[in-house]
Amino acid sequence: MSKQITVPFGPQHPVLPEPLHLDLVLEDEKVVDVIPTIGYVHRGLEKLVEKREYTEYVFIAERICGICSFIHSQTYVQGIEQIMGLEVPERAQFLRTIWGEYSRLHSHLLWLGCFADGMGFESLFMNAWRLREHILDDLESTTGGRVIQGVCKVGGVRKDIAPEKLDEMLKGLKGLEHELQDLTNVFLHDSSVKHRLVNIGRLSREDAYYLGAVGPTARGSGLDIDIRKTGYGAFNKINFRPVVENDGDCYARCAVRAKEMFTSIDIIEQCIKKIPDGPVDMKVTGAPDGEYFSRAEQPRGEVIHYIKGNGRKNLVRHRVRTPTFTNIPPLVTLLKGCELADVPVIVLTIDPCIGCAER
Amino acid sequence: MMEPQTIVPISVGEIVTRAEQAKKDGNRLVQIGCTKIEDTFEILYVYDKDYRLTNYRVTVKQDDEIQSISGVYFGAFVYENEIHDLYGIHVKGINIDFKGTFYKTSVKHPFSVTITKEDDPCQNK
After folding, report:
1. CA-to-CA distance for A225 and B100, rounded, in angstroms?
2. Phi, psi of A66 (to 5 degrees)
3. Rounded to an integer, what distance in angstroms lies between the CA atom of residue B31 and that of residue B53?
4. In terms of CATH architecture, what is A42-358?
5. Which of B114, B86, B37 is nearest to A43 (CA)?
6. Which residues of chain A have a CB within 8 Å of the CB of B73?
7. For chain B, which ranges sit under pLDDT 70?
8. A51 vs A113, which has greater pLDDT?
9. How far is CA A196 from CA A232, A261, B85, in A?
10. CA distances from A126 to A132, A299, B40, B91, B116 (A)
11. Which residues does residue A13 pair with via DSSP β-bridges, in sequence order?
C-alpha cells in the first residue's frame, strides 16, 4: 500500500467562489477518502423568524441565496399559504412559475460559465455569461431586480407582467434558444470538454438515491426526481418531462443542466400561452397556525422550507434544507477513487452553493 | 392546494428502527431538522418515496442522547452534526462526527435559546 497523505482542498480555491473545505486523503494521485467541512460563513438566517414578522421574513428567505433567490421566496410563501389555507390567484401562480424558470435559466448559465472556467475554457465561460445577461435583463425589466427580485409575497406577487411584455419575452426566448443550442453543442460534443467529463466522478443510481442526491446530481445518475412534478405553482397545468441521464458521471450532470435550459424555455412558453387574466394577489389577514414542509425544485434540486407557526406574528421555526446541503454526502462518495486533478471538476458538477448551505 | 402532510410522533428508541424500515420500504432520507419548543426539542425525520413524505417527530430534552441513523443513511451525518452544533443535542454514533466543529459559531449552540419577546399583533390584523 502506498503512503497516504492528506491534501487540503479549499476553503480558498480558484474553482470555489464560496468556502468549502475538503480533506482529501490520497494514495499517490488517487483520492481514497474525503472529509468535508462547511460552516465557515454560517449566518443563522433561520433564527431571524423570531425577530421578523412572517410577512416581512419573505425578504430574508429570498436572501438565503443570490442565485436561486426567487425560488426561496416562492417556497417560503407557498408554505405559509398552505398553512393558512389561502387560494392564491391563478395568474400569480403562473407568474411565479415564469420567474422561477427564468431563475433556473440564469443559474444554469452561471454554472455552465463557471464550469467552463474551471476547465480552463475561457471563451466558453464568457459566452455562457453573455447569454445569461439576456435572462437577467428580462428579470430586471419585469421585477425590478436582477438577482433579488422581491416580488413574491404571501397571497400572490407584487408585480404583474403586461401582455405586450410577455410577447416580447416570448420572442426574446426564441432568439436565445438558437444561441443556447450553439453553446450547449460545445458542452455536449466538444472533444476536449468530453475528455474532462466522460467517465469521471461516477455516482451510481442507488448511491444517488440513498445518499440523498437531488436535482441534476440525482437526475444525472438516472433518478427521475423533480419536485416540479408535484404540481406546485402552475406546474400542474404544464406538460414537461424532467431531463434524466443515466451514466452518473460529470458529463451526465453537465448534460442534464444543458438540456434543462430548453425545458425551462418550453415551460415559460407554455405559461405565457396559458396565463389567465385576473388579480395577482389577495388580502391576507391573521397569522399561520400550523406546520408544513414546503418543497420546490431549485436549479440545484429539491429545497424544503419547514414552517411552523402558532398564530402569532413571529413564526416558531423556519428551517431550510437546501439542495447543496444534501448533495454533500454524494460528493464525498463520487470523489472517492478519482484522480486529484479531477477533484475541481467533480466538485463543480454538484453546483455547490455554500451561500444556500450556510443559510 | 398541495399534498396533505402528517407527522407521526415516535419515541427516542424508535429512531433507528423507523429509519431501517423507511430504507427497507424504498424511502430516501430528505432531511432531519430540529425545533425548540419551550424546554423541549422536536426532531423531525423526513423520508420520501414517489413524492410522498413520511414524517416522524421525536421530542427530547437537551440532556437526552439520540442514536445516529448514519449507519442506515450515510448522508445523515450532515443533519446530525448540525443538530448537535446548533442545539447542543448529543447524537451517538455518527459516522463522520465533527465533535462540535461542523459550524464555527461565535456562540455555543446558538439555536438552543429563543429570542422572541414581543407579542404585538400582526401588521396585517
Report:
1. 33
2. -95, 5
3. 11
4. Orthogonal Bundle (1.10)
5. B86
6. 210-212
7. 1-3, 115-122, 124-125
8. A113
9. 37, 22, 38
10. 10, 20, 52, 47, 47
11. A16
Tell me the residue type at A180: L
Instruction: Write out pLDDT tens, residues B44-54.
Output: 999 999 999 99
- What distance in Å separates residue B83's CA from the closest CA in chain A? 12
Cα A145 to Cα A108, A133, A152, A358: the distances in Å are 18, 13, 12, 23
CB of A336 within 8 A of CB of A107? Answer: no
- DSSP alpha helix (H) spans, B1-96: 15-24, 76-87
pLDDT tens for each residue of A276-323: 999 999 999 888 999 999 999 999 999 999 999 988 888 888 999 999
What residues of B are in contact with residue A287 (Cβ under 8 Å)?
122
The pTM of the full predicted model, rounded to 2 decimals, is 0.92
**Cell 492528506, residue located:** A6
**CB proximity A39 to B under 8 Å:** yes
- Indicate the burial class of A165 (C-beta count within 10 angstroms; 0-12, 13-18, 19 or more): middle
CA trace torsion A180, A184, A186, A189 (10° rounding):
-140
Residue pair A317/A308 in contact by the 8 Å Cβ criterion: yes
